[in-house]
Amino acid sequence: MGSSGGVAVVLAIGTANPPYCVNQVDYPDFYFRITKTDPNSPLKDKFRRICEKSGIKKRYMHLTEDIINQNPNLVIYKAPSFDARREILVTQVRIDMPTADHKLANLIGLKSSVQRFMIYQQGCFAAGTALRLTKDLAGNNAGA
């Protein structure tokens, strides 16, 4: 309970997945193919075992084999790839200024006095961060 005297409750959770999907059972082959790593390496067997035990069924990603083939520095250790990564981010993830959350707030008429927060570049970790921040905001602000 926060100072508002209420309890924060999650009413809904949504998901958004990138369009490209690789089944976990195929991921070791995919990874070793795109990184041009020896497919007969003992590391591949170890990687396959890790993938099998992970409990993950599907991997969603923005990077397709075509994108990686067009930008080989993405999979070369310590190769310069900042410009390619930024271009992919802008076109695939649609990062823009002003940010999407700001545009959405304006579209739905959200008052500027409403507290909000941005979470960028955290991948899957963002979900836990968003839930913690949301609970704090809702639990400590009456009527939130």
What structural keywords apply?
6% strand, mainly alpha, 144 residues, single chain, two-stranded antiparallel sheet, 2 strands
Topology:
Blueprint: E1 20-23, H1 27-34, H2 42-53, E2 58-61, H3 65-70, H4 82-93, H5 100-107, H6 125-139
Antiparallel strand pairs: 1-2
Helix pairs in contact: 1-2
Order of helix and strand elements from N to C terminus: EHHEHHHH
Say how many strands there are: 2
Describe the global form: extended
Separate helix tally: 6
- Supply the helix-strand structural class: mainly alpha
Largest sheet: 2 strands, antiparallel
Oligomer: single chain
Kindly provide the radius of gyration, computed on alpha-carbon positions and rounded to a whole number of angstroms: 20 Å
Strand % is: 5-15%
Which segments are poorly predicted (pLDDT under 50) over 5 or more consecutive residues? none
Overall average pLDDT: 83
User: What is the share of helical residues?
Assistant: 40-55%
Kindly report how far apart the N and C termini lie.
Answer: 13 Å
Pfam families: Chal_sti_synt_N
Protein name: Chalcone/stilbene synthase N-terminal domain-containing protein
InterPro entries: Chalcone/stilbene_synt_N, Polyketide_synthase_type-III, Thiolase-like
Describe this structure as you would to a colleague:
Residues 4-93 form the Chalcone/stilbene synthase N-terminal domain. There is one protein chain. The chain has a domain at 96-144. It is built from six helices and two strands; from the N terminus they run E-H-H-E-H-H-H-H. The model has no long low-confidence stretch (mean pLDDT 83). The chain has helices at residues 27-34, 42-53, 65-70, 82-93, 100-107, 125-139; strands at residues 20-23, 58-61. A two-stranded antiparallel ribbon has the order 1-2. The longest helix is centred in the last third of the chain and has 15 residues, at 125-139. The chain has 144 residues and is mainly α.
